[in-house]
Design brief:
TIM Barrel, about 325 residues, magnesium, heme biosynthesis, lyase, alpha/beta, 12 strands, ALAD, binds ligand PBG
Length: about 325
C-alpha cells in the first residue's frame, strides 16, 4: 500500500491552538466565562399539613414535603447557606380541594401559614409564592373549569384575590404560574391598590405544556386528579416567538422578573428572552429534569455531582440570572466547601 499524504498540522494551525488555554486547572479557571454561585439559586419546598413531620416524594429522590414547623427549619438552613430565595408549594389536604379552588383564598391555608411562620423568625430569605389554582382544585387545573373550558377572566379575578392573601401573609415575590391572559397587570394593580406596591412580580411568561412536570404533580398530589391536559393555557413546546410575545406583554403589565419553564429543554427561550428584554430572567429546572438526573445517576449511568453542576452551569451560559432547582440546597452546600 502506498503511504497516504497527510498534511502537517503545525502548518494548518499557523500558531492557533485552542487547547493551550485548557492545559492546566489554573488556566481553565482563568478563562472560565460562567460560574454558578449560591446567589443564583431558588429552592422550591413542598409544604404539608401536620406537625414535626417530613415525607419523601417517591418520584423525586431526596426531595421532601415539610410540615410548616419543619419548613421553617428548612428555610433557616437555606438562608444559612446563602440561598437568596425559596419558592413555596403546598400539598393541600384532599378534603380541602374543591371545584373552584376556594382554599387558595383562605388566609389560613398551608401556604399562608408557612409564609407567616418563616417571616415570624425573621429568616433573611426571599419568599416566592406560586399563584395558580392547581394545588387547590379537585380537577387539578390552574384555573376555573366551566363546562370543559378553563375560563380566563373569572380565573384572573380569583388569582388577584389569591395573590393578595399571599401578600398579606408575607410573600415577597408573587409568581403567577397559571398562564391566564392579563393576570400580571391585574395582580399588579391589585397589589398596588391594597398597599403592596413594593412586592415583586415574577411572571411565568413562558410556561410550556410539558411532560416534565409529572413528579411535581405527584409531590403536590394533583397527578391523580388532573382532568385532561393544560394545553389550552400552557404553551406549545414547538413555539419560541410566542414566548417573546408573552414576556413582552408581562413586562408591559408590570412584571419585575421573567421565568421560563421547564429549564434544560428550553435554554434557547432563556437566551432569547434575556437578549431581547435585558430583564432579570430565571429558569425552572422542573421535577422531571431533576428526576431524570437522579434516575440515571442511581443506575450508575452518569456521574451525579458532575451532571448536576453541568446542568446548572448550562443555565448560566444561556443567560439566566437565577435557577429554580430542587438541587439548590445540596449544591449550595458543595459551593460552600
Ligand atoms: C402549576 C405548576 C406546575 C409546576 C409548578 N406549578 C406545572 C403543572 O402542574 O402544570 C411544575 C414544577 C415542576 O415540575 O417541578 N401551577
Amino acid at each position: 500500500m502506498k503511504e497516504p499524504r497527510i498534511p502537517n498540522v503545525t502548518d494548518i494551525l499557523g500558531g492557533r491552538r485552542m487547547r493551550r488555554n485548557r492545559s492546566s486547572d489554573w488556566s481553565r479557571r482563568l478563562v472560565r466565562e460562567n460560574e454558578l454561585s449560591v446567589n443564583d439559586l431558588i429552592w422550591p419546598i413542598f409544604v404539608i399539613d401536620g406537625h414535626d413531620h417530613v415525607e419523601d416524594v417517591s418520584s423525586m429522590p431526596g426531595v421532601k414535603r415539610y410540615t410548616v414547623d419543619r419548613a421553617v427549619r428548612a428555610a433557616e438552613e437555606a438562608a444559612k447557606l446563602g440561598i437568596p430565595g425559596i419558592a413555596l408549594f403546598p400539598n393541600t389536604p384532599n378534603e380541602l380541594r374543591d371545584d373552584d379552588g376556594s382554599e387558595a383564598l383562605n388566609p389560613e391555608n398551608l401556604m399562608c401559614k408557612a409564609l407567616r411562620a418563616i417571616k415570624a423568625e425573621g429568616i433573611p430569605v426571599g419568599l416566592i409564592t406560586d399563584v395558580a389554582l392547581d394545588p387547590y382544585t379537585s380537577h387539578g387545573h390552574d384555573g376555573l373549569l366551566r363546562g370543559d373550558t378553563i375560563v380566563n377572566d373569572e380565573t384572573v379575578d380569583q388569582l388577584c384575590r389569591q395573590a393578595l392573601v399571599q401578600a398579606e401573609a408575607g410573600a415577597d415575590v408573587i409568581a403567577p404560574s397559571d398562564m391566564m391572559d392579563g393576570r400580571i397587570g391585574a395582580i399588579r394593580e391589585t397589589l398596588d391598590a391594597n398597599g403592596f406596591s413594593e412586592r415583586q412580580l415574577m411572571a411565568y411568561s413562558a410556561k410550556y405544556a410539558s411532560a416534565f412536570y409529572g413528579p411535581f404533580r405527584d409531590a403536590v398530589g394533583t397527578n391523580a386528579m388532573l382532568r385532561g391536559d393544560k394545553r389550552t393555557y400552557q404553551m406549545d413546546p414547538a413555539n419560541t416567538d410566542e414566548a417573546l410575545r408573552e414576556a413582552e406583554l408581562d413586562l408591559q403589565e408590570g412584571a419585575d422578573m421573567i421565568m421560563v419553564k421547564p429549564g434544560m429543554p428550553y435554554l434557547d427561550i432563556v437566551r432569547r428572552v434575556k437578549d431581547t428584554f435585558l430583564v432579570p430572567t430565571y429558569a425552572y429546572q422542573v421535577s422531571g429534569e431533576y428526576a431524570m438526573i437522579c434516575a440515571a445517576a442511581q443506575n450508575g449511568w452518569i456521574d451525579y455531582d458532575r451532571a448536576v453542576l453541568e446542568s446548572l452551569t448550562a443555565f448560566k451560559r444561556a443567560g439566566a440570572d437565577g435557577i429554580l432547582t430542587y438541587f439548590a440546597l445540596e449544591i449550595a452546600r458543595k459551593l460552600k466547601q
